[in-house]
Amino acid sequence: MSTMRQTAPAPAMPAGHDMSTMQTAPAPTAAGQPDPHAGHDMSTMRQTAPAPAMPAGHDMSTMGQTTPAQNMPAGHDMSTMRSGQQPAAAGQPDPHVGHDMSTMGQTAPAPAMPAGHDMSTTMQTGQQPAAAGQPDPHAGHDMSTMGQTAPAPAMPAGHDMSTMGQMPPGHDMSAMAMPPDVPTSADNPGRPPEMPLPPGATSGPAHAADALFDPAEMAAAREQLRVENGDVRTTAVIIDQLEASFGDGEEGYALDAQGWTGGDINRFWWKSEVEGDFDGEVEEAEIQALYSRAFRPFFDFQTGLRQTYRPEGNRTDLVVGVQGLAPYWFEVDAAAFLSNKGELTARAEAEYDQRITNRWIVQPRAEVVLSAEDIPELRIGSGLTSLQIGARLRYEFRKEFAPYVGLEWTKSFGNTADFLEADGQSSEDTRLVVGIRTWF
User: Fold this and answer.
1) Where does the pLDDT of residue 248 fall: very low under 50, low under 70, confident under 90, or very high at 90 and above?
2) Which class for 337: exposed (0-12), middle (13-18), buried (19 or more C-beta within 10 A)?
3) How far apart are CA 235 and CA 127, in angstroms?
4) Angstrom distance (rounded) from CA 172 to CA 191
5) Is 285 exposed, middle or buried (0-12, 13-18, 19+ CB in 10 A)?
6) Rounded CA gap, 389 and 429, in Å?
7) What are 260's strand-pairing partners?
8) pLDDT digits (tens, 9 = 90+) for 300-310
9) 0.70 exceeded by the pTM?
10) 66-75, 206-215, 272-281, 366-375: which has the minimum mean pLDDT?
11) Which has more confidence, 155 or 440?
12) What secondary structure, in 3-state letters, does the chain show?
């Protein structure tokens, strides 16, 4: 009766019928026939009633048909009733006896289906009720909320569905799709599992090749491999400065060279410096012979002897120092010298290669000299003896050969400056230098 749309004046209803809101009604029953709507409540005809909740287990997500539905008693399917249907014929029982017709003409969503029934894609508008004498397949079904989308049922305790699509609490999926973190010889996260060694792997000789070849020959081969890959001997000669200097009407020359031979840990290291005038004698020359041992990846401890030649007097010194590559690529060389006459001096140098291009390089350089006491014979005063700062710009035709040009400023302090001035020399000097840097 859900699609009845006839426009007719409401007839007088027997006792118990409320027709206050009837707007569309069928014709009254014929004389002598029982009223099929006796006991029906028609007070809310054409009103829209809310759909009841869906029972658990029903999937009505695709119900989109607009089908009028009423709360039907067990065994009755009124969802496909069409306009114009007539009441039952005389002498036949009224199939709608006891029906609630209060919501006739309303549009209500399809009811939920009981457990085990999926009516989401099979209920269509226009389906007919079961034939006479056949059991109604939907007996006992509540069809009042057909077409409605049921709310999700409540989850059991301990489940938080507020973030549907995410993992529930207690599940850590941060390492999903990563290999298991099983300890192996490679100490890194996400390493693959390592299977235990087979029993045969720990039996037999320490080197499997010894079972097939002469053990003495294999031992010699392993020693050669160690030498070539872990005990490499190298030799180098670096001429850091071979230059001519010009300043204050004087022309001079300077040589600063060093080299080594040995392995990565232990080396023999030598160093040499020479300074002089083109038209005079050598002002100072020295040579060092040092044992060098690496104590850090980029630093060596050095000790040995130094022999110094000066016009004022020669000295032989015990040398203790360090040399290496400091953070940010500063090359550092610092040493203390104890002479054969008990004179303690020290010197520290630092330089840095700043690349402008792959071939043009600027090399700032600084050197300080210290003395624990005055040494009048060598014209050296105590404290900070001298400071030398310079910069050289070189062009590398090859890595092993690079000419350069630069400036160098030297300043003497304290008694050292007094000694120089007493000899008629200046305590401060600025020179232009031109030279070559090479190594092999």
Assistant:
1) confident
2) buried
3) 100
4) 19
5) middle
6) 11
7) 236, 269
8) 999 999 999 99
9) no
10) 66-75
11) 440
12) CCCCCCCCCCCCCCCCCCCCCCCCCCCCCCCCCCCCCCCCCCCCCCCCCCCCCCCCCCCCCCCCCCCCCCCCCCCCCCCCCCCCCCCCCCCCCCCCCCCCCCCCCCCCCCCCCCCCCCCCCCCCCCCCCCCCCCCCCCCCCCCCCCCCCCCCCCCCCCCCCCCCCCCCCCCCCCCCCCCCCCCCCCCCCCCCCCCCCCHHHHCCCCCHHHHCCCHHHHHHHHHHHHHHHHCCCEEEEEEEEEEEEEECCEEEEEEEEEEEEECCCEEEEEEEEEEEECCCCEEEEEEEEEEEEEEECCEEEEEEEEEEECCCCCEEEEEEEEEEEECCCEEEEEEEEEECCCCEEEEEEEEECEECCCCEEEEEEEEEEEECCCEHHHCECCEEEEEEEEEEEEECCECCEEEEEEEEEEEECHHHHHHHHHCCCCCEEEEEEEEEEEEC
Q: Which amino acid would we find at residue 162?
A: S
Count of Cβ atoms closer than 10 Å to residue 156 Cβ: 6
Tell me, what amino acid is at 40? H
Comparing 201 with 177, which gets the higher pLDDT? 201
Using the predicted structure, report yes or no on whether residue 288 has a pLDDT greater than 80: yes
Whether 311 shows a pLDDT value over 50: the answer reads yes
Determine the pLDDT at residue 36. Answer: 53
| Rounded average pLDDT over 93-121 | 50
Cβ atoms 190, 179 nearer than 8 A:
yes
Backbone phi, psi, residue 277, to 5°:
-105, 150
| Distance, C-alpha 341 to centroid of its chain | 62
Give per-residue pLDDT as tens, 387-409: 999 999 999 999 999 999 999 99
How many beta carbons lie within 10 A of that of residue 41, not counting itself? 14
Q: Is the pLDDT of residue 295 over 80?
A: yes
Would the pLDDT of 332 be above 50? yes
Asked whether the CA dihedral 311, 316, 322, 325 is positive or negative, the reply is positive
Phi, psi of 41 (to 5 degrees): -100, 110
Question: Pseudo-torsion of CA 166, 170, 175, 181, nearest 10°?
Answer: -160
